[in-house]
Design brief:
The protein has about 325 residues and is mostly beta strands. It is built from four helices and 21 strands.
Length: about 325
């Protein structure tokens, strides 16, 4: 997979709101074999839209081309430039080019009659986020020492106090606090009887029975979300040679506005007021739209010459409007 490409399209905010209320969509197509034939992306108009993709091509075949119809490939196969796509009675297979030539195209070898071949690729609305490596669960120790338990040597604050039955005798037998302290220091505490059920003051190794989170395996690892691949080209096979042809996906894109009926994968022959950008030298490009004109970079960038796409050609709108005097 190649490095990600990025296309940023900016609209004047007020104009974007007006176009969205009219049901207009922002459309993108990619040129293959010098043709734009399929709407790769058709999205609602926003003040700023960012599209990203990388060459992760898939090839398919179909019966024919119909203007305004949505392409729905039944079977696709992964392919890259420099490969050879072999087609035999509807079955497709891909092999590497043995001689290493024609690295920029996908060669087609077929032993069947005329058909239409196409390419699709993923395209993402918004920046591409690289997949994050799975995080390992925290390691929980299987054993841990228990803290020492202190045996109380006297009454605590929580123990209930009882009134003596004979206050007079209690008063006479009671000793001053300082004498009580001396006796406590002089009289050593009796050793506690050994009882396995009674916790001792020495630390012990205790096994923790709490379950440890399982380490993810190949079966439990979460899979990355699948991004659908949308068709961006459909062309007739056999237009260059009788038994061989090829698909040449270029780095040129065509951008224009269309009605809300247009969807991803819609085949078309004509488009009005289009702009063309080339990402062969730079993997990112930016366009702006204001006042019915396309501009490079930003809303204050250089205004592009208005053009239409008509039956396989980019036509200069201004040049077409000039009437010619017959000879």
């Amino acid at each position: 997979m190649s490095s990600p490409y990025t296309l940023t399209v900016v609209f004047d905010p007020e104009e974007a709101e007006a176009l969205a209320s009219e049901g207009k969509k922002l459309c993108i197509s990619r040129k293959v074999n010098d043709w734009y034939t399929v709407v790769w992306a058709a999205d609602p108009i926003l003040p700023t839209s960012i599209f990203t993709w990388a060459d992760n091509l898939q090839a398919f075949t179909m019966d024919g081309f119909s203007d305004g119809k949505v392409v729905a490939p039944e079977k696709t196969v992964g392919v890259a430039t420099g490969d050879i796509l072999s087609i035999n009675v509807g079955n497709m297979s891909v092999v590497a080019n043995p001689d290493g030539k024609m690295k920029d195209v996908i060669q087609i070898n077929a032993n069947t009659g005329p058909f239409w071949s196409g390419l699709s690729n993923t395209i993402v609305k918004g920046p591409v986020t690289p997949p994050q490596p799975p995080t390992e669960p925290p390691t929980v120790p299987r054993t841990a020492p228990m803290p020492p338990v202190e045996t109380p040597t006297g009454p605590t604050d929580t123990e209930p106090t009882h009134e003596p039955e004979n206050p007079t005798s209690a008063t006479t037998e009671a000793k001053p606090a300082e004498h009580q302290l001396d006796e406590a220091e002089q009289t050593p505490p009796e050793p506690a009887a050994e009882n396995p059920a009674t916790p001792s003051s020495s630390p012990k190794e205790t096994t923790i029975t709490e379950a440890t989170p399982p380490i993810p395996t190949s079966e439990s690892t979460l899979e990355e979300p699948v991004i659908p691949a949308f068709p961006f080209y459909v062309g007739r096979y056999g237009t260059i040679m009788d038994s061989k042809s090829w698909l040449f996906p270029s780095s040129k894109l065509m951008i224009w506005l269309a009605d809300q009926t247009v969807k991803n994968g819609t085949m078309f022959l004509n488009a009005q007021n289009v702009a063309e950008v080339d990402l062969s030298k730079d993997s990112s490009a930016a366009l702006a739209y204001a006042g019915g004109n396309w501009a490079l970079g930003s809303l204050t960038g250089r205004i592009l010459r208005p053009m239409n796409w008509e039956n396989g050609k980019l036509v200069n709108v201004v040049a077409k409007s000039v009437s010619k005097t017959p000879n």
